[in-house]
Amino acid sequence: MPDDAVPAAPEPQPDAVPTVSVDPAQAWEAGPPIVPSLSPSRAGDFMTCPLLYRFRVVDRIPEKPSPAAVRGTVVHQVLEDLFDLPAAERTVERATSMLPAAWEQVQSEEVDLAAQLFESPVEAQEWLASAVPLLETYFRLENPTTLEPAERELRVETTLDDGLVLRGFVDRLDRNAAGDTRVVDYKTGKSPGEGYEQKALFQMRFYALVLWRATGVVPRQLQLLYLGDEQALRHSPDEDELLATERKVKALWAAIQRAHDTGEWRPSPSRLCDWCDHKSRCPAFGGTSPPLPGRSAAPEALRTAAAGTTPAG
Ligand code: SF4
Q1: Helix, coil or strand: residue 260
Q2: Which residue, among 257, 253, 248, 262, has the nearest Cα to 203 in the 3D structure?
Q3: Residue 110: closest CA among 65, 173, 53
Q4: pLDDT tens-digit profile of 187-224?
Q5: Torsion angles phi and psi, residue 165, rounded to 5
Q6: What is the pLDDT of residues 108-158, one digit of tens each?
Q7: pTM: predicted TM-score of the whole model, two decimal places
Q8: How many CB atoms lie within 10 A of CB 183?
């Protein structure tokens, strides 16, 4: 999808549902209002699959942690802590030695995380060792002894003119002597294939938009470092593309608001479904979505009832 295209919106499609009236007492309750805010991750969820967004944001259904995702968190922790050291001590050996402490830190934030992920301590050790090549790759991509980040794990936030709050966490913000800024994000997976770079850059443009609106200055460079295959994606944004990103984000929020108002959170099957924690409750795979929080039934349940024996009107 072109980066400035309006994302696929879950437009209500009245023709696709039985044209019967539903008992107003049974029908759609307004539901609790939603706070107008978006992060790049949640925006990405909705663009991938509106129903996935619903399960994560509206229902808040917990997901099983995956070893790959948690390893990514541990590596991020090491790369954040690395810059606490004096520059000369930022070596690959030192970074590797920081893995156990980073893993402890990550475990302290979620009860029984190790037990959820691993059958045995040996399995956990092998998994932690698999983070070493990622750190080695990081050191081939850049030399941290020559860097002094201005910020790490920086929480960024701004409110757009229509009240939509944009927020997120930037892995690292560098600032040179001239005051130019560079937004850096680490990815422990592989770089996007040809044609998917724009999708990958959306997250970075989102951060650039937030920083621009919050400070009045467009970041000089956006940099994605892919530790999975030793690739770097760099881009210099300008105001026009950040305005396009702003329009896209607003359109995305309007689509989310429509889905919330109608209760129509449509599944959008793709190859990512193989990794989706919600497949068993997804109608695209024969599952049934739970009723929406604060509402008596999911819209598909109401439609089924209306099309069957439940009296209408
Ligand atoms: S299984 Fe696929 S279609 Fe269903 S919610 Fe997950 S990502 Fe969406």
Answers
A1: helix
A2: 248
A3: 65
A4: 999 999 887 888 889 999 999 999 999 999 999 999 99
A5: -95, 130
A6: 999 899 999 999 999 999 999 999 999 999 999 999 999 999 999 999 999
A7: 0.83
A8: 27
Q: Which residues line ligand 1 (CB under 6 A)?
A: 49, 51-52, 267-269, 272-273, 276, 278-279, 282, 284-285
Contact of 306 with 22, CB cutoff 8 Å: yes
What atom of ligand 1 comes closest to residue 269's alpha carbon?
3
> How many CB atoms sit inside 10 A of residue 174's CB?
18
DSSP codes, 36-67? -EE-HHHHHHHHH-HHHHIIIIIS-------H
CA of 100 to the centre of ligand 1 (A): 34
- CA Rg, the chain, in Å? 22
Domain boundaries 151-244, corresponding CATH code: 3.90.320.10
